[in-house]
Amino acid sequence: MIIFQDEQVKKLKRLLEGWRMALLTLKSVLLWEQQWHPAAIFSAVSFLYFLVWIMDLNSLATFAVAGLLLNFIDFIVPFVSNMIYGHSAWTGQHEKMFIDICNNIVVSYNKTFQNIRTFYSMRETSPTMYYIISISMLCTLTWIASSINNTFLLYILTSVMLLWPGLAHTGLFNSLFSLFNKAPKIPFLKSD
């Protein structure tokens, strides 16, 4: 498994070669190394979805514009990174951080697909539980999607996904859970 993971990291490093300086900056923003990073993330996502709302495109045109934007970013980021930083700015510490980023991406990717495989293996091992979970999740998703605007749902999902690493890194989840654990327990049903 480790050998397979090392091969995946090497392939990912080659794939992201032009993005390496941008990835270091992106990591610092996603982990909120400065106090203004959460506001910058939220503002960028809000501005992007504001543009989507203003353009009022249909679904197919929205996917086309998103694809164009992603292609433009994929073209311009390596070009600008090499122009700004150059190859001489790359140090051993940067290389170590880049390898760590690639390793984290591969580990998250493998863990996600392992969880998906585990869920689908429930179809063979415990079909009743599999169908209960699947049907309840799909019904809930259908109810939410029919009740709330889909663009707004994507906005919330994107914001949460981009703010999640910073929330986890700063330990806000742990402090929130510790507050709940310290709260006095109120018995709902007293036995006399």
From TrEMBL:
GO cellular component terms listed in the entry, alphabetical order: endoplasmic reticulum; membrane
Membrane topology of this protein: Multi-pass membrane protein
Domain (RETREG1-3/ARL6IP-like N-terminal reticulon-homology) ranges: 20-178
Keyword Transmembrane (UniProt): yes
Main location: membrane
Domain of life of the source: Eukaryota
Keyword terms: Membrane, Transmembrane, Transmembrane helix
Pfam family, one: RHD_RETREG1-3
Coiled-coil positions: none
Membrane spanning residue stretches: 36-54, 60-80, 128-146, 152-180
Protein name per UniProt: ADP-ribosylation factor-like 6 interacting protein isoform 1
